[in-house]
Design brief:
This protein has 158 residues and is mainly beta. The protein has 1 helix and 10 strands. It has a single domain, classed as Immunoglobulin-like (Sandwich), CATH 2.60.40. This is Secreted protein.
Length: 158
């Protein structure tokens, strides 16, 4: 009888540990890749490498764009940039992410905007090449365009 109790106790303990591991395991990312790099040319801001970081929660997605090479010629206050990021869909058409969030940026410092929000559908494959990042800073329009496809590849949403 004692062996049965030990066997049952061991099975319950193993099951509990397995469930704990399942519950504590991180969930899979909904968008792949989660970050990509582009080489962009921006009117008035010069050009260089920028990183795009994407997240997804259902049909809502965000993308943050940051660069140490694309710099601001003047100091900018927090949330002072209006941004619109248009990405090209592999299936045709475009998807736009918008927002007015940015950290305070000192003159000569790299530019970061986002998170910019947009709506996606399962299976959307979005690429920056062929799209644009349009910024409005103190009433001045600035357009940034990718000079080649993003690396490692387009954002694919679940």
């Amino acid at each position: 009888m004692r062996r049965k109790r030990i066997g049952i106790g061991a099975a319950v303990a193993a099951g509990t540990l397995a469930m704990t591991g399942f519950v504590l395991a991180p969930s899979a990312a909904a968008v792949v890749p989660q970050s990509a790099t582009i080489n962009a040319e921006c009117s008035l801001l010069g050009g260089g490498e920028a990183t795009l970081t994407a997240t997804q929660d259902g049909t809502s997605a965000t993308i943050t764009v940051s660069s140490t090479e694309i710099t601001s010629p003047i100091a900018l206050g927090e949330d002072s940039i209006q941004a619109s990021l248009t990405l090209v869909k592999a299936s045709g058409g475009t998807t736009t992410f918008t927002g007015t969030e940015n950290p305070a940026i000192a003159a000569g410092e790299g530019v970061t905007v986002g998170p910019l929000t947009g709506t996606v559908a399962a299976g959307d494959s979005l690429e920056t090449f062929g799209g644009s990042l349009d910024l409005t800073v103190i009433g001045i329009g600035i357009t940034c365009t990718a000079q080649a496809p993003q690396s490692p590849g387009p954002f694919v949403f679940e």
